[in-house]
Design brief:
The chain is of the alpha+beta class and about 325 residues long. The chain has three domains: about 80 residues, 2,3-Dihydroxybiphenyl 1,2-Dioxygenase, domain 1 (Roll), CATH 3.10.180.10; about 60 residues, 2,3-Dihydroxybiphenyl 1,2-Dioxygenase, domain 1; about 120 residues, Nuclear Transport Factor 2, Chain: A (Roll), CATH 3.10.450.50. It is built from seven helices and 14 strands. The strands form three sheets. The protein has a six-stranded mixed beta sheet. It has a four-stranded mixed beta sheet with strand order 1-4-3-2, covered by helices on one side. Strand 11 and strand 12 form a beta hairpin. Helix 5 runs antiparallel to helix 6. The termini are far apart. Keywords: Metal-binding.
Length: about 325
Amino acid sequence: MKTTYKKSNKKVQTSAAAMLNLLILFSASEKTTAQNNAGIVGIDHVGINVPELDKAVTFFNDVLGFTPVTQLGPIPLDAEWKKLNHINPATGAVTIKMINAGSGASIEVFEYADNKGSKTHPNTDDIGASHIAFYVNDINLAVQYLKSKGVKILGEPFTMPSGDTAGESWVYFETPWGSKMELVSYPNGKGYQKSNPKTVLWSPKDVKIKKVSETDFDSKKNTAIVENHLKIWNEKDEAKRKALLNQVYASDVEMVDRHFIAEGIEEISKFIVELQTKNPEFKFTAKSVETNHNIVRLYWQFGSKTKSSVVSGMDLFVIEAEKVQKLYVFVDQQK
């Protein structure tokens, strides 16, 4: 009797597993088909209604630093359109402003003339309530700034201690017209990313914005930046090295070596300290520097007074906004 039960139970488990696999396969197939049919690439913009367009645009522009780009209207709305889109029949024309909100989706702001709709904002738990979240590098500085502009902060920043969003800090704030929005920051990523997920949530912090300007093509300035780069790698005083690092490198600089990638000033600084500790008498010296627009090549050697060229190589710099954004390191093969 027990044997029969075990076999039967095993068959049930096998059948259940097979059904689960089919369900997952079917769901994944459905999702892929839907995406292919719809042709959706991503979120283009988020639309919000405001009572006064000019005041809302001033807030987005002067306080949050966003840029108004396009405007439509006022556009009269016919009765059929109002009925189809659940707009009060007595409401007037609509004016629309599209705002560039930095890296990510734009914000489309609507003002309805002689608006006969509800003037009350939905409560947070009401159906249809929503908010827009803006990523910031330093949430405490961002809160301090908004407070200085008279913006109402709803509570204090809170950092998630565990779970999928561990390491994420967030806080809500209120616009002058009463809409709820959010500041969010996770400079070291979120908890779920530590398990190496196949899919990672999109984040504006991971987007590299091109900031090349005419000043980045100045060969004299770029040569000076590279000379300061050498000073960084030879400087053993921590305070002086840190000051130079912040002067020469972008905060999210990447150093790409054949064996590893160092991301950010802290990781590069740590590598420099380790290199200096292992080779206390060694220094970097420049053999030659070549510039081409905002790209610079530095040929170098690394050695001491007794061993002048133990290691040699070439660094390739990508300079934007007068700082090193990318640094590619090529070390010559030793004979």
